[in-house]
Amino acid sequence: MNDDRDAPTVRDVSDWWSTAISRVEPDVIELRGHPIQELIGSTSFVAVIWLLLRGQLPTPGQERLLEAALVSSVDHGPHAPSIAVARIAATCGIGLNNAVASAVNTLGDVHGGAGEQCLHLLGEVATRAGAGESVESAASSVVGRWRARSRYLPGYGHRFHTVDPRREPLLRRVQEAVDDGVVTGAYLRAAEAVEGELARGRSRPVPINVDGCTAVVYGELGFAPPLARGLFVLSRSVGILAHAWEETGQGRRNKGPMPPSIPPTFLS
Amino acid sequence: MNDDRDAPTVRDVSDWWSTAISRVEPDVIELRGHPIQELIGSTSFVAVIWLLLRGQLPTPGQERLLEAALVSSVDHGPHAPSIAVARIAATCGIGLNNAVASAVNTLGDVHGGAGEQCLHLLGEVATRAGAGESVESAASSVVGRWRARSRYLPGYGHRFHTVDPRREPLLRRVQEAVDDGVVTGAYLRAAEAVEGELARGRSRPVPINVDGCTAVVYGELGFAPPLARGLFVLSRSVGILAHAWEETGQGRRNKGPMPPSIPPTFLS
Amino acid sequence: MNDDRDAPTVRDVSDWWSTAISRVEPDVIELRGHPIQELIGSTSFVAVIWLLLRGQLPTPGQERLLEAALVSSVDHGPHAPSIAVARIAATCGIGLNNAVASAVNTLGDVHGGAGEQCLHLLGEVATRAGAGESVESAASSVVGRWRARSRYLPGYGHRFHTVDPRREPLLRRVQEAVDDGVVTGAYLRAAEAVEGELARGRSRPVPINVDGCTAVVYGELGFAPPLARGLFVLSRSVGILAHAWEETGQGRRNKGPMPPSIPPTFLS
Amino acid sequence: MNDDRDAPTVRDVSDWWSTAISRVEPDVIELRGHPIQELIGSTSFVAVIWLLLRGQLPTPGQERLLEAALVSSVDHGPHAPSIAVARIAATCGIGLNNAVASAVNTLGDVHGGAGEQCLHLLGEVATRAGAGESVESAASSVVGRWRARSRYLPGYGHRFHTVDPRREPLLRRVQEAVDDGVVTGAYLRAAEAVEGELARGRSRPVPINVDGCTAVVYGELGFAPPLARGLFVLSRSVGILAHAWEETGQGRRNKGPMPPSIPPTFLS
């Protein structure tokens, strides 16, 4: 190697990948500065999730709220697209990690990404309300602007349940965290204001759904919107894995979405 | 629909997908019989992982041991193939779930699957020892047979660390679980016997590595070998997500494995 | 099954998946109405690609132009993110299809998706020019609007090459197709007008790049913008497969992006 | 950078990724030594597929035979697991490349990988016959050994069709290639001998299926078994893309495998 200042150096190369998350050298593994041997057996999995994403360990109140959200989204049965893909893939002779990957891949803007988009929406409301505007007025403006773009308002509406069984436990935990001073309640108030805005002039309410509830949790906890999707991925991976494993044990090979006796319709 | 006995019926169709993991109907979500509203806020994420995979909630001792294993494998830095793929993918303008999926997909037989294969190996030793043979003799036979098939013995050897910092905390937690009567120790004894067999006649030992340690944990806890890989997937997904998110924030687009100033070698 | 009109019927089920692409029954496979036995050995792979996507076979001129675009994008070496991911994944003990999948997954908005976005842009210019506006004026308005949204204008600029070797052959084939009356030239003229707009007031031109050239081809051929990405996927899958296979033969396991002797930088 | 012989050098780094497939430098793209501008518009997509995988351009006879196999496997309708996954994924708000990736990921040992395994089997027969044994005797031994391992013999049997419409055109093209001296016929004879062996003592024959026919083609053309799967991936990606695109146009969101009116069965 010559001395030409334009020639690449080893330093140029070692800087190409840089991380604050972990330091790994022979006989050393540190996660955000914590030696891993001090975490194993003493720190919960949820606390380690927070640690890797945020840079420090969570407080007990933060950990509890994150845990509630992670538990809430683990599964929604074999008709959820992610679960269906996991089960179909599991019959094709690929590894469990591959079946999980095919399924996690489907958690996009429409299936799992709604929480991310709702967090954007609630963030806009909370930011305006934090700047002095009434939360009701903020909700009205923001909802108006989002509705002009699309008829689907992320986080609100009956997707499958009339009264989603995950809603009350999640929102109650948020209120408890507000009462305990763990979070401010800004996102909770924003979500309630949006729900109020959606109810105006309608006979049937448009309630917040689970994407909206988890968006409230992740917003209160200070996660950026894409991590609402990322955390939904960690949660749903549990159900995806369980279903892929269960399908493997049922013994069918190359399973399609329906029995072969019901062929798809041919559109001539 | 006619009465022809050969015609498919709606029953044929509804039986095509069947699960014991969850029951999802309008306003109802039950995970292994537990209403989800009773789990959110009261049950840990790790306990829910066990619940979905095994069918009932774990005992505190089982939960602690599973948690230790899940924490141990979350990350191994940007040179681990799964982490590298996550970071590269994250610069390509795809969703976080897609970057995670591309990375989880790499956790195959060689990267993450070694725990699954080690669990098969230890299971063979433990089964023979359980049938009356000495564990040392069982280890000797099984190791001999595995070595005839491949020079890589899963779960043993220096992959990167001379003394893996995850080893001692994991094996100590297993021993504590044995002392507490949570697990039998059959896999721990099998792993120690294999380590002893590998040391015979060598100047340098071939110690158990982290794949082997997690295999011991998962074997003691009664998980089938493919779930050793599945649980490694849930664990490593955390680091994968964190690294994909961090790379997104570093602002580069379309990042390759090295700086463009260092082109790949062309083999003419 | 009862007679309740609300009960699902087998018809509801068989309509759930409907396609005009293929009809598959015992002993019958028809692709867009063509029995497959009439296609095998008589119809080119590229013509079959067109057939499945568009519904009928292409003319020879259309097939030639599509083929040129597909050939142009097959590979860009091991530093392209998709190729890097394929090669890393191939060392992890997963199937070739899995390595290909992880890599194809990275062909997003920034790596492969630029052609899709450029086709949107050119389509806007071509539509306005088709409505009577001069193509130069249309280019000026559209470029102005796109530049307000992002500093990256898809399809234009030096990404790696100063003079991309794929540009001239692709644009020449488009001009030939215009001369032969196979395509109208609307997208070619739009692309040239955009290039002219970008050159105004600059000392250095901002030439159309390969994403832009393939966008011109796909636009002239009448493909919707997402299929610009889809066709890029079919093309790049060839290089992805070849590189994954080659890496498999090089014998390394669990390969990271750089040699272990160059650790990543830790940001403390 | 110091002179320590143990310190990594830039050379160590640039050798980490090495390829004979392509050379990419500013203004240069060569595929197996061919400048890409000489391939675009003059060389077929199938010939380029061969070029990248094999290192040189195919003869016309080789190209025709490869093309027949690639055309044969492009689609098998919405009940094929890969197609089902593509269509479900396409309703989830992810990119077309992501839907394709999730689907390609399912082309494992059981769905698409059967061609790879059949090529191994036929290769064993052809090798023994090439060493002097009669092909019938070779077939008998090899089939016996494979049947001892699994009841599924890859490449043979009624999977869906009684008379697969792809069989005759594929095998006829192989025979033509033998007659033209393009290939030797060793794999064709091996496949016929296996079919004969499977027929012995049975009332119903066990005919070669499409996995077996494509295995014959890829074996005659000299492709290694994993590339039988790789080439099936390139072929099936076409149908996967077409179905994902068509489903996108049908407007449903978050589609499961069946209508919601038919819930999955809960195994209590």
Can you give a write-up of this model?
Four copies of one chain form a homotetramer. With 268 residues, chain A is mainly alpha-helical. Among the domains of chain A are: 22-58, no CATH class; 114-230, Cytochrome p450-Terp, domain 2, CATH 1.10.230. Chain A contains twelve helices and five strands. The first copy, chain A, has a three-stranded antiparallel beta sheet. In chain A, helix 8 (135-149) crosses helix 10 and helix 10 runs antiparallel to helix 11. The longest helix of chain A is centred in the C-terminal third of the chain and has 24 residues, at 225-248. Chain A is globular, with a radius of gyration of 23 Å. Residues 1-5 of chain A have low confidence and may be disordered. Chains A and B meet through strand 1, strand 2, strand 3, helix 2 and helix 3 of A and strand 1, strand 2, strand 3, helix 2 and helix 3 of B. Strand 1 of chain B pairs parallel with strand 5 of chain D. Chains A, B, C, D: Residues 257-268 have a biased composition (Pro residues). Chains A, B, C, D: Pfam families: Citrate_synt. Chains A, B, C, D: One of its GO terms (molecular function) is lyase activity.
What's this entry about, in short?
The structure is a homotetramer of 268-residue chains. Helix content of chain A is 54%, strand content 5%. Chain A is mainly alpha-helical and 268 residues long.
